[in-house]
Amino acid sequence: MVKSHMNRMTGGNGMLYPIIGFALCVAFIYMSFGDLWIDLHGETKLSFVERNGTQFMVDGKPFYINGWNSYWLMDHGVDESSRSRISAMLQAGAKMGLTVCRTWAFNDGGYNALQISPGRFDERVFRSLDNVIAEARKHGIRLILSLVNNLQAYGGKTQYVQWAWEEGVGLSASNDSFFYDPSILGYFKNYVKC
Ligand SMILES: *[C@@H]1O[C@H](CO)[C@@H](O)[C@H](O)[C@H]1NC(C)=O
Ligand SMILES: *[C@@H]1O[C@H](CO)[C@@H](O)[C@H](O)[C@H]1NC(C)=O
Question: Where do the TM regions start and end (predicted)?
């Protein structure tokens, strides 16, 4: 398809192929490593937090968490109309000298679900999560990304148990079966992998 289209464009002139090929290659590299490019031009670099014994460490130095909980960031970022709240919240946190925010990287089953049903995801919500991560970095905020809820809100444990029950693979209707039912553990491991 692409080739015959280009043939028409170039009238069969072979010289243009290497040029077009090179341009596509540059575009691809730019799109793949655009983030690194920004890094080289002075945006905040945030290393991952590590641990030594009971001490959190960043870049070899002790790190003390001073943060807050805004579980709703990804959810509010899905709709254009409420997206600006994410940046406003992170900016407010940064202004108060906070450096870490705990937020939800899950939303199972319900409204604006990231995981619609086991192993099925909504790309719009993934994009919103990407945006949350990018915004956090812009404001120099590290994130604790929670992957499941012990409570019912945003799905969590209860939703996993219900999925397994509905599909007839659940061993029990008890919410605590999240912790031992092999089918449910499978769902959750699959989610973490994705
Ligand atoms: C971890 O902590 C121990 C005890 O304080 C120290 O001796 C060691 O050098 C530390 N390791 C790193 C990688 O910082
Ligand atoms: C599981 O938890 C939900 C939410 O707290 C509750 O409504 C439901 O009754 C619980 N299921 C069982 C079997 O206890």
Answer: 15-38
